Amino acid sequence: MNQNNKLVLGLIAGGVLLLILLTFVVVLLLGISGGIFLGDTVAVIPLEGQIAYGESNILEGKVANPENIKNSLKQAEEDPSVSAILLEINSPGGSPVASEEVMSAVKNCTKPVVVWISDQGASGAYLVASSADKIVASPSSIVGSIGVILSLTDLSELYQKIGVDMYSIKAGEYKDMGASYRDLTAAEEKMLQEMVDQDYDYFIHLVAENRNLNESYVRSIAEGKIYTGSQAKDLKLVDETGGKKQALDLAARLGGLSDSYRVITITPSQNFEDVINSLSTNAAYALGKGIGSFMEKGAVEYNIR
Predict the structure, then answer these.
(1) CATH architecture of the domain with residue range 30-145+225-285
(2) What is the pTM of this model?
């Protein structure tokens, strides 16, 4: 090998070495400044409000959309800087389907997931919490409400008193089941009760499976009852009682992190246009409902005459 080739190879080797050194220095500096966390991070994902399909807005309050929660979990899962996840729950529950969807997403996470129940984690929100690796609840929080409810209203007597004649033209014997202008028949009540009972049994099965508890035991403490965080711990519905710091520490330990772990919060992004569209849709709905109500009253009055 001649002198020129040796010089070229030396320059290449020196350049590669310098590049590696510079890369290491950049990564180190970014890590110190907080730009790269090098796997020493706990990601906090808030779940607040009713669990349902939709978006939070002024008229209906906060909504925990399953898609938003799932996207946040996916982001934490794919981020190499995150070693554990803290799902911060403050929710009364919500749609059975939406709640089960979030529950499945939490259950399928490959990184440790700890749930912290702040004010409340009830009904569907507790179903979500039950699928986590560990649950920490504030001692005075509301936990549980393992049950199913179907609310109906019979306003037929009120309609008669105020002179409203409401009826429907239907195809199908049960099509107006649950309508406010009449009571349920015995057959309809039996049908709905069977549906509610089936959902209740499934709810109990999922909680028992997620918490490694006997189904008969879960049934004995369910019945729609609510408990404080301290009571829930005694009943094995949660693992520990404490505040957010305790829950973060537990998540960090499960993620194999040291005491000097970092914390980031992942929230669904919603731009200004999304907010305006949400408000516009609800305002239009309210206005349309108001106009429709006046038209309906006018028609009713006309029919009465």
Answers:
(1) Alpha-Beta Complex (3.90)
(2) 0.74
